[in-house]
Amino acid sequence: MRWLLPIALAACGDNIPDKTAACTLGQATSAVTVQGRKIIGGAADYVPDLGLAARDDELRTSIAARRAAAWQVVAKVLAPVQLAEPTLPQPFQLPAWHTWFARDDYERVYKKLYRDLGPTGRRARAPLDATTIDAGFEWNTHALDELPDWPAQRYADYVAAIDEQTSASGVAGANRVAYSPGAMRQLIHSYVQQDACRLAPDPDPFAPDATKLGAPVMAIEKPAVGTCEFRQLGPYQAGDGDVTITMSGTGDADLYVRRGQAPDTETYDCRSDGGTSTETCTVPGGAPIYVAVFGAQSSEVEVEVAYVTDDVASPTCLDGPMPRDAVVVKADWNRVLTDPLPIFDTSAARMQQRLAAADPEWTDDGAANPDATQIYTASIPETGAVFRMPALHVMSKELDHWLWITLWWSPDPDSDFGADRGATTRCALSRAISKAITIRAVGKPVRSAIRSRRCTRAPASRAGAATRTSSRVGATRRPTASAVTSTAVRRCSRRRSSPVSHITAPRACATTSSPTTRGRSKVAAATTCPRSCRPRWTTGTRTIRSAGAARWYTPDMLTVYGFNRLGDRVVGLTRDLRVLWAVEELGLPYRVQGLDFEKDLNTTEYRKRSDFAQVPSIDDDGFVLAESGAILLYLAEKAGAITAADVRHRYDVTRWCIAALSTIEPPVLVVNGIALSKASDAGSKHQLAQMTRLTELRLMAVDHRLGEHDYIVDSTFTVADILFVTVLRMLKGLGIVEQFANVRAYVDRCEKRPAWTKVLDAYEDRLHAPRGSARRSIPERV
Question: Does the pLDDT of residue 284 top 70, yes or no?
Answer without folding.
Answer: yes
